[in-house]
Amino acid sequence: SPARVLLHPDFTVGTVDRRLFGSFVEHLGRAVYTGIHEPGHPTADGHGFRRDVADLTRELGVTTVRYPGGNFVSNYRWEDAVGPVEQRKPFLDLAWRTVEPNVVGTDEFLQWAEREGIQPMMAVNLGTRGVEEAVALLEYCNGEAGTRWADLRIANGREKPYDVKLWCLGNEMDGPWQVGRKDAHEYGKLARNAGRAMKQVDPSIELVACGSSSMEMPTFGEWERTVLEYTYDLVDHISMHAYYHEVDGDRASFLGSGTAMDRFIERVAASADAVGAQSRSDKRITISFDEWNVWYQSRFPGEDNLPIQKDAPRIIEDVYSGLDAVVVGDLLVTLLNHADRVPVACLAQLVNVIAPIMTEPGGEAWRQPTFHPFATTARLAQGDALDLRVSAPTITTKAHGEVPAVTAAATLADGAVALFLTNRSAEPVEVEVAHLGAALEIAEGWSMTADHEPAVVGPEHAEKVTAEHWGEFDVAGRVAGDAGASSTTVTLPPES
Ligand code: AHR
């Protein structure tokens, strides 16, 4: 058989942190306004949030949501978006050149997350602001009555602290596009000072230091080293961001994107460990992969070329195909295989902006093809990630060299194994799955296959792609031999 996966229930990578199935809502385009929030929409709840979007968010299985940015946070004044809505003033967000009405702010978002059972992940502005504002926001969110900012929250109608656990120290501070961009030393010092003060307010929080905006940044590696030299003892995670898309019709490289993600994770982990080794620290920095997805950045004119707009304009509303969904599945396999090192990951983003959920203002909400692999993985990847041995033929790609044609991840919880397989090749592939330890009975199977059609905007096309490319995988029908034996052979469809 050309590919083989060997699993044993005792060999594990680590427990899958539920925060691996996070997402992201930024004040960008229609993510907030006409995305999660639209008073007057037929499904709007008493707080003006769309019920249809919240229901799809639950179905997607999202556990944590990062907010309020992204690039947006680097020029955000959170205090201007709390208190009576009619007294809040709009401001010009320089990141996306959009007039932000400040109708949804910290309280509205955190209460939405709470109602939906989502753990919030907040970011502080270290672009145009600093230690004082970061500490004030944390006190506003987590403080008990009796201090200025906690009392302001209470005056604004929220008695109980929100107890937000996860905090990003800024966003993509190495990016030339970032408002208030810093060099690694400037950022490292600021992150250390802000983080230290924040932990004095609430020692129970977890902090994320900004890593490089992508592996392609010229300062990649050096940035991680410098930032962590300032912050190693203080922060818990270093961030990673990566977006993948098909370039010039190079399908093979696009399908191999998981290999690029895998190398990126290994390199960031190595950079962090080098700092730890140098300081003889026993602490291990983990990774918050707080932005990842397929994003056709080549179609985006760039932030600086956006006109100044208002009223929730359509910005980077990528429409996804079955091919994109297969790549999303492959990226999830990569994340699962690093469960020991990556406890937090956010599919960027949740609604309308490079998102699995789309909406029409006043109209329907629907699932993009990328919704399905995410929702199914979030549902089935429970318990521990298994340390698999995978052998597979390779494919030669322009962008990543030789990549395996088949990738695999597996989880185990209460005797139930979930096995995630991708076939990146254009041919069907037989995979022998050897499960040492116990014979397996097959409960369910799901598959997504790639398409060759360009994606078209709208719910009809999304449904058509779903009907043709996503659905139950007839495992029994595809298994050669006895499915109850300790080895089974499954045939994977091409590009699936
Ligand atoms: O997710 C869209 C943008 O991508 C975010 O604002 C930024 O952090 C990244 O460059």
What does this structure look like?
Belongs to the glycosyl hydrolase 51 family. Its EC number is 3.2.1.55. It holds the Pfam family ASD1_dom. It catalyses: Hydrolysis of terminal non-reducing alpha-L-arabinofuranoside residues in alpha-L-arabinosides. Residues 290-496 form the Alpha-L-arabinofuranosidase C-terminal domain. There is one protein chain. The chain has 496 residues and is α/β, with parallel strands linked by helices. The protein has 2 domains: 18-381, Alpha-Beta Barrel (TIM Barrel); 389-492, no CATH class. Helix content is 27%, strand content 23%. The protein is built from 12 helices and 25 strands. The strands form 7 sheets. An 8-stranded parallel beta barrel has the order 3-4-7-8-9-10-11-12, surrounded by 6 helices. The chain has a 5-stranded mixed sheet with strand order 16-1-21-25-24. Strands 2-15-19-20 form a 4-stranded antiparallel sheet, with helices on one face. Strand 24 (479-480) and strand 25 form a beta hairpin. Helix 5 (184-201) runs parallel beside helix 6. The longest helix has 22 residues, at 257-278. It is globular and about 70 Å long. Alpha-L-arabinofuranose is lined by residues 26, 69-71, 171-172, 241, 291, 348-349.
Question: How many strands, what sense, and barrel or not for the largest sheet?
Answer: 8 strands, parallel, barrel
Spatial strand arrangement across the major sheet = 3-4-7-8-9-10-11-12
Structural class: alpha/beta
Classified in CATH, the superfamily of the largest domain is Glycosidases
Mean pLDDT: 96
**CATH class division of the largest domain:** Alpha Beta
Q: Ranges with pLDDT <50 over ≥5 residues?
A: none
Cα distance spanning the termini: 18 Å
- The helix tally amounts to 12
Domain tally:
2
Instruction: Report the C-alpha radius of gyration, rounded.
Output: 22 Å
**How much helix, percentage-wise, in residues?**
25-40%
| Beta content | 15-25%
| Multimer state | single chain
Tally of strands: 25
CATH architectural type of the largest domain: Alpha-Beta Barrel
Shape: globular
- List of distinct ligands in this structure: alpha-L-arabinofuranose
- Indicate the CATH topology of the largest domain: TIM Barrel
Domain Alpha-L-arabinofuranosidase C-terminal: 290-496
Family: Belongs to the glycosyl hydrolase 51 family.
Subunit structure: Homohexamer; trimer of dimers.
Keywords: Carbohydrate metabolism, Glycosidase, Hydrolase
